[in-house]
Structure formats: structure tokens, C-alpha cells
Amino acid sequence: MGRHHHRISATTGAGPVRRHPGDLTRRRLFGGAGAAVLAAALAACTGGGQLAEKSASAGSGGGALQWWDQFRPLTKMFQDALFTPFTQSHAGVTVERRQMDAPDLGQALQVGRRSNQMPDVHSLAGLGTVSPAALVSEGWFQPIGKLADFAGSPIGEFVYDGIHRFDGEIYSFPPFSGRWHEAVPWFNTAMLKQAGVDPEEEPGTWDELREIARKVATGNDGGAAGLVLPSKEPEYLRTLVERLAMTAGAPGPGNVDWATGAYVYDTQPYLDAIEFLVSLQKDKVVHPASASMGARDARARWAAGQAGIYLWGAWFIGGLLVDEPEAVERGVGTWHIPCPGTTRNFVYSPPSSGTFWVSSQSKQAKTAAELMLQMTTKEFQTRLAEAMDQPPALAAEVIEDAKVHDAYRKCVANFQEDVKIGPVPEVGNPGVWQVLAEMRDVHPNLGDIVQSVLTGASTDAGGQLRRFNDQISAERERALKAVREEKGVEVDLKAWVFANWDREKDYGQQDYAGR
């Protein structure tokens, strides 16, 4: 969603957002701007808005059903495969969609809620990584499970307690797959061939990727970098290092040792991942302007032929097709995520979160739920794959028949081999989200540390990682004590322990009861 996140991150696409300690806390979220700035916020947040011929008004007291999200590459698909068929079969129903960049969407949602002018349906992009459970507890949403049959839908098996279902009520569902990561090596086919590199020979190790980057940097008349590494955004660097650390043997998701519940930021895989990125800079294969680039800036530079390789999510090619289609025509390919050595380690992701939610302010909740249910059909899931954003929930079933670029099909196939679904503490103990919401930001965090090392502001990555690990561990202890004493929540460090976790397998819903 690239997101995008989600979306993680704010991408042109999905980039889903993943919850991790030290991000936007609940107290910060609900301390947003006042309602007086709503009009200005919405005026600044129209984004692409390609679906609506005229600007949609905020509020959901009747009229058109309002839908806000950040999925720019999905604009045409939403219109053709979701909204138009639904409105044609439901007389009198109209849908007005507003597409915004994630930061703008987050601001609009905060001021919209405070002024009772929320859309009927919205994503959570731009709200930081506050837990949806926290938003449910604060009354942001209304349940949809009794308004439409999500439990009996094709994606019913992917609906989790603590992620989509709260107190027995379904509030959301996962239209996208959890089997993905943000560190896919995308490459410019023509540049590789010019450098004498066979795109079909995958770099299985970090050193092999370094060697290819060196060849690209020297084999294109010195006019391009081997690799672009957008270092302006600590969030991009955080997720990249987390994923690389997993290929070096770190558990996941969540940066936690599931045997003890302890954070593992100070372990060797994280240091190895950072040192790998530093080695690329020492090789002088990284685009010299990387430090000033955000993720989308870097994609534009890559598309312009200024770098041969870029590590980003599946939505990369969908964004290219929207904004830089000529780059796809010149040739784009992808590989498996490389590992430090020849031993292949898995990357771990949580089950996909709920993407769309019905506002508690909506007066059209049943219509909204019925519209959202259409996203669970195999037909829509196929169209979702064809938008080439984050893979759909039914990716393994629909990808072969979907009309997608070969590189996207290979990317999704690689996810099936490289990614396992890991445990999520909130699913095992609902009290965890209250601890996460209570936790205060700790800086410098992982992304800040990586950025400081890459920009030369710090050379002691190991020392910084140890300090951060100690600080975030202490902050979790403080938050645990606070929610136990102040709110009477029964939760302790054991909530982060999953002794039956097998790094070779998915951690399924049935595994929570057996831990």
C-alpha cells in the first residue's frame, strides 16, 4: 500500500503500516489539531482524488458514501471493479472517494473525527502505527460482521481476534496478504545487461548483490549508481534493516525473541544488516543523493535510469505503471531477498491487518459493509492483483490467472517461498495493545540509528543499538506496570513469549491456544 503502507509506510500504494514500539502513541494521536482547521486540512488533502469528478464533502450524514484512502495505484481499479459495479446494482447508492497521501489523510481523519465530519469508510494511513484495537476502544469504528458475512467469505480464515475481531465482533478484514516484505530487490534489466550481468542469475547473498551493484556502477559509463538507498526517511531504513536482519537469522515480526519476550535490537543480525548497508556506501555504489531522498523520490530517480537496483515493496511496479510507465517498458525485474550466506533464512510478517474501517459516525454502515464485502470475492481479488500493489489476500490462488507483469508475478511467488507469518502478541493477549499505546517514543530509534550511521553522524552502531534496546525494554516495563496498576489490565512480559514458535512454519490462529 506501500503504506504503503501498510503501510509501513506511506507509499503511492499499499505500504501497510506495522505497529512497533516507540511510534505514535494513543495520547499523541488524540491530541491532534482542533476542528477549526478541518476545512483547511481537507483543502490541502485532496491528493490525486482521481475517482471523484467533484470534490467530496466531509461528513457521512447521508448522500454519497464517503471513502478515504491512500491507494493511488488502485484508483482506476477501485472505480471499475468495486464502486461502479456496486452502485449499478444498488439503486440510489453513490460513492465519492478521496485519495490522499498518507500524512494528509492522517491529519484529515484526526480533525474530521473531532468535528464529527468523518467519512463512512477510511484506511488508517497517516495515523502512525497506533493499534487498531486502541482506536476500537476509543469508539472510532462500528462493527460490520453482522452487516455482511465476512466470516463466511473467501477471506474468512484470515480474520484474527485482536486484529480484525474484537470482543467477538468483526470490525475489519484483510483484503491484502500478510505474506510480503518491503525489501524486494527491483532492478533495471537494461542496465544490468549493459554491465554484463545476467538478470536471471540471482544474487543469493549480500556479497553477490554488492558485486552486481559494483558492476552496474562501473558498467554504465559511470553515469549511474549501482543502487539507490533513500536515507531521508528513518522509517524506510527501519523496515529495511529489520527485514535484512531477519535474513541474518533474527526472529520476527516485532524485534522480539519469542523464547524470552526480550527485544533483540542489540543482537548480531541487526548490526550485520547495518554494516551491510555501510559496505555498499564504502563500495561507492550508492546514489550520491540518497541521503536527501524519500522512498518515492528514489523511485523516480531509479525510473530515470540513475540507479540499477532499489530495495522496496511489491507496490513498486504498480507505482511505476501509474507515474513512470516508460521505466517498465524499458525493462524491470526482481529477485528473492538475499541473505548474508548461502543458508536461506525466512522473513517474518504478521497477519495482514484490517485496511478499511467503517466510522462510528457513519449513517450508512450496512451499505458500507456490503460494499467492503465485495473486496473478498475471487473476482475482485484478481483485479486487486492486477493493480500490482500489495498482494491480495488470495494471492496464491489468483496470481497465475491475473493479468500482471511477469516481474510482479515473480515477486508474489517469491513471497510464498521467502515469508512466514509470525506471532502477534496482541492476538495472544488483548492487554498488549494497551501497553503499546502507553509506551512513549524512544529516540534515537532503529531508523534514526541507521540514518545517523549512513550519514556519518555516528560510527558506533553497536553502542547505539545496545542503548536503544535497553531504553525500549525499560519503557515497556514502565508501560506494563502502568497499565497493570492504573487500569487493572492483566498483562506481563509473558505476553511476548511464544515458546511453540517454529521459525520454519507459519504461526497460525490455532497456535495461540497451544503456547
Short description:
This protein has 515 residues and is an alpha/beta fold. It contains 20 helices and twelve strands.
Describe the protein's architecture and organization.
The two termini are 32 Å apart. The strands form four sheets. The protein has a four-stranded mixed beta sheet with strand order 2-1-3-11, sandwiched between helices. It has a four-stranded mixed beta sheet with strand order 7-8-6-9. Strands 4-5 form a two-stranded antiparallel ribbon. It has helices at 26-29, 38-44, 75-89, 102-114, 132-137, 189-194, 206-219, 234-247, 268-282, 295-303, 315-323, 325-330, 365-373, 378-386, 395-398, 406-418, 425-428, 431-438, 446-454, 461-487, and strands at 65-69, 95-99, 121-122, 165-166, 169-170, 184-188, 225-228, 307-312, 332-334, 347-349, 357-358, 419-421. The protein folds into three domains: 26-178 and 354-390, D-Maltodextrin-Binding Protein, domain 2 (3-Layer(aba) Sandwich); 184-349, 3-Layer(aba) Sandwich (D-Maltodextrin-Binding Protein, domain 2), CATH 3.40.190; 425-514, no CATH class. Helix 8 crosses helix 19, helix 18 (431-438) crosses helix 20 (461-487) and helix 19 runs antiparallel to helix 20. 39% of the residues lie in helices and 8% in strands.
